[in-house]
Design a protein that fits this description.
This protein is an alpha/beta fold. 53% of the residues lie in helices and 10% in strands. Strands 1-4-7-8-9-10-11-12 form an 8-stranded parallel beta barrel, surrounded by 7 helices. A two-stranded antiparallel sheet has the order 2-3. Helix 1 runs antiparallel to helix 3, helix 8 packs across helix 24 and helix 11 packs across helix 18. The two termini are 36 Å apart.
């Protein structure tokens, strides 16, 4: 009776939360515990009745959904004798009920629910949401870092993060695997870039670079490079932790801004964008293809070149002698590291020439590239799949370029049957569908497995503010409906490609949107793609949308939780965004 009364009180509290003044903030935080608890209360009664009625039922009569209702902190990570739900028979899409509170919250303790309610109540306070970072800084000044970090650790951190290290995470991962949910480990320290600490103060040593064509000199600090090398070791531990805690179906996530100076990534992105703009100038008909005659005409207009040099360039751009050149081959030739060989032949100093990196910047780019290859090799060796996170739009062209290079090598069809490297596409960007289509064609041309994580996007406010500040058109879809449509259409494109061409392509449907998941599940059934097919994964953030993740896992789908981890002070930027 006491448990029933307590659950009813939680239900009342949750109902009041749903009618709060700030539904937008609440929506962003999602509704992990903000669903009806009637069935959950009933399940608790059932468990109590079952355990007390020894003459009528044994412990094996308790539904497996309820048998994992242990506090994650008390689970023995080395005990794998419990009821693993991975063997549950898949259900048809029509039978999946994402409002089943027992499936969503059956493994939670009352303490877990109380903490969740407290966290989401706090997230409804507009003042706290807007001034979270300033309040944390004030708390550190008044209370000190130790006490402030402790307060964060036992509230927001415990709810949204899996732990500070691999030992902390094991109970959480074990609980998830009891519910047929795999882990995605994410070292959640974030680097925003463009701040004063990215530059060198007077008197400090740094890497001085002088780009060509009288561009401003740039200085990259040694500390940034040392930090990037240190992050390689952290990500290696992450990759190996996935192997140790989930050797058959785990993922590790990484951010490229942790492996290279953000300013350098922005420089690389500028190069890639200007190469694309140059192709548009060559592509006078706007067809995406340039005939040899048009290419020669435009090349001679912008660059000095003798016939022998020009013939060699055309042979590289059109190795199969089709008579046509497209953007894919064009961008393969004019990479950031190769660009100086071309721009030194420019007839005029234009945007492309001014984007040309210096020899020292190219050395730094190659160092960043080597860090990524080191981690990719380690991931393949450990059997761990890598999810490369999307970041700010000003870095994304460079990130895409680096990831495509990794995919071409480590997802090669003659090397592996399944992909190891996943790129992330933010479907709130207007160009996302075009980029996915181009990269899918690229995977077919260069014979590697396409692999993508699909998200709606996490930096909407930042992107719109930056576009406004720089007097640029916003890269974000104008309406939420356009974003939803783009997301669902991209999923359909990739699922139909999988149905036509068979295994190889893989997608991670990373969304908290129930309608998108229902559409994907229905389309999988229509295309005869089974729930456990390794081509399709579903993922949600830890601490959010448990009604989606646990229900998918319990019905045999490849469900995952994104598990951020790291020391409390390192993951504060992530928590503030949540």
């Amino acid at each position: 009776m006491m448990m029933t009364s307590r659950m009813r009180h939680l239900k009342k509290t949750i109902t009041n939360s749903q009618s709060a003044k700030h539904p937008r903030v609440l929506m962003r935080c999602d509704t992990i515990v903000l669903t009806k608890l009637d069935d959950f209360i009933l399940s608790r009664r059932t468990i109590a009745t079952s355990t007390s009625s020894t003459s009528k039922a044994s412990s094996s009569a308790i539904p497996t959904t309820f048998s994992t209702s242990l506090d994650a902190s008390t689970v023995d990570p080395d005990n794998h004798d419990g009821p693993i739900l991975a063997h549950r028979a898949p259900s048809s899409p029509s039978r999946i009920n994402f409002s089943d509170s027992v499936s969503a919250h059956g493994s939670k303790t009352t303490l877990d629910l109380f903490r969740a309610i407290a966290v989401f109540k706090a997230c409804q306070l507009e003042f706290l949401v807007k001034h979270a970072e300033a309040l944390l800084n004030a708390s550190r000044t008044v209370l000190g870092s130790t006490l402030t970090n402790s307060l964060v650790k036992y509230t927001f951190f415990r709810h949204f993060c899996a732990g500070e290290n691999s030992a902390d995470m094991k109970p959480v991962i074990h609980m998830l695997e009891q519910n047929n949910i795999g882990p995605i480990l994410d070292y959640a320290a974030e680097s925003e870039g463009g701040k004063d600490d990215d530059a060198i103060s007077d008197g400090e040593d740094g890497i001085f670079t002088q780009p060509p064509f009288n561009q401003p000199a740039r200085v990259y600090d040694y500390k940034s490079e040392k930090d990037c090398d240190r992050h390689v070791q952290i990500f290696k531990k992450c990759i190996r932790s996935v192997r140790d805690v989930s050797p058959t179906h785990g993922f590790a996530a990484l951010k490229v801004t942790a492996l290279g100076n953000p300013e350098l990534l922005e420089r690389m992105s500028t190069v890639i964008v200007e190469v694309k703009n140059l192709f548009s100038k060559f592509d006078r008909k706007g067809t995406g293809l340039i005939c040899r005659e048009d290419f020669i005409h435009c090349y001679e207009k912008y660059f000095y070149a003798d016939d022998e040099k020009l013939t060699k360039i055309i042979r590289l751009l059109d190795p199969n002698n089709t008579g046509m050149i497209d953007c894919i081959s064009f961008s393969q030739l004019l990479t950031p590291c190769k660009l100086p060989n071309f721009t030194q032949k420019c007839k005029e100093i234009g945007p492309l020439a001014l984007a040309t990196p210096s020899s020292d910047e190219i050395i730094l780019m190659k160092a960043m590239r080597e860090r990524l290859h080191t981690l990719a090799k380690d991931a393949v060796y450990c059997g761990t799949k890598l999810l490369i996170d999307a970041e700010h739009a000003k870095y994304q062209p460079a990130i895409d370029n680096l990831v495509l290079e990794l995919q071409q090598k480590y997802n090669a069809r003659d090397r592996t049957e399944r992909p190891f490297i996943f790129n992330t596409y933010q479907c709130y960007l207007k160009d996302s569908a075009e980029r996915i289509t181009t990269d899918l064609k690229r995977s077919e041309r260069f014979s590697f497995h396409f692999a993508a994580k699909l998200v709606r996007g996490a930096y909407m406010v930042h992107e719109r503010e930056r576009a406004k500040k720089n007097n640029l058109p916003s890269p974000i879809h104008d309406t939420a409906e356009n974003t939803h449509r783009c997301y669902d259409e991209v999923i359909e494109l990739l699922l139909r490609h999988r149905a036509r061409h068979g295994p190889g392509l893989e997608i991670m449907i990373a969304t908290h949107n129930k309608e998108s998941i229902e559409k994907a599940v229905s389309l999988m059934s229509e295309l005869d793609i089974g729930p456990s097919d390794e081509s399709v994964h579903f993922a949600q953030l830890y601490g959010m949308s448990d009604n989606l993740t646990f229900t998918l896992g319990n019905h045999g789908y490849n469900a995952f939780k994104y598990l951020p981890y790291g020391e409390v002070q390192e993951v504060v930027p992530y928590l503030v965004r949540r």
